[in-house]
């Protein structure tokens, strides 16, 4: 009799837990989200873009800070981000850690601090240099105000643009890149304009384009990095010839030391070529030009010789 009662009792308990827990987990109100995201873009007369982002993040069950992903390289275009700082009006840990990964600058705020729960407010500020692009008769700024790297929905976003001159041509688009809609706009005098957008899904952003009259700001020229692959036909030809030479070396390999020396020289050439760019602009600014291709050619031949000797020894 006891066994007959225990089975239904366990089943009823499991059903009760499912009824109480599963709906709570499915309730979007308890999932991480960004209730409000306010950005102020201040276009300074010296050509520097000052950005102030106020982010209200609801951690729901808990989390360790936020990470703002900011593209510092778009194609070959480079943006210089300086003076990154953060704070929290709700007392959440706000120590800043910046790392470059890929073409992104990742700004971690409170990521190594204690866990926080519920709704927290963060303020991130930074300056962007070389953000303007000189055009015929005007200077243009194109900027993704909130980024597309957030993996949580943003319920309400507001972007304010302030300039030292009258704003005549300002546009705002919201959504995913290539599939966006216009933002609601409200002018605040001649020198500022506010954009708003609600219901942004994860991965969606807000991009603002501003055109200022020529010489309205002292905009330094844009900075560009060399393409990651900058080899010419000469370097490519060397690499192709090296593949043929490696095939011949496998059949009749020279001394093993020759192979080791060629491989070492190849590595040094690649490191020297890419190292100049890395030292100047970070680990993801590397560019492989003809010296790198020549180094890969030497490395290919040297590795072929070494492998041929290993095969014969085996």
Automatic annotation (TrEMBL):
Top-level taxonomic group: Bacteria
Protein name: DUF2207 domain-containing protein
Key words of the record: Membrane, Transmembrane, Transmembrane helix
Membrane spanning stretches: 229-250, 262-280, 292-309
Sequence ranges assigned to domain DUF2207 in this UniProt record: 33-210
Keyword Transmembrane helix recorded: yes
The keyword Transmembrane is assigned to this record: yes
Species whose genome carries this gene: Actinomadura sediminis
InterPro entries xrefs: DUF2207
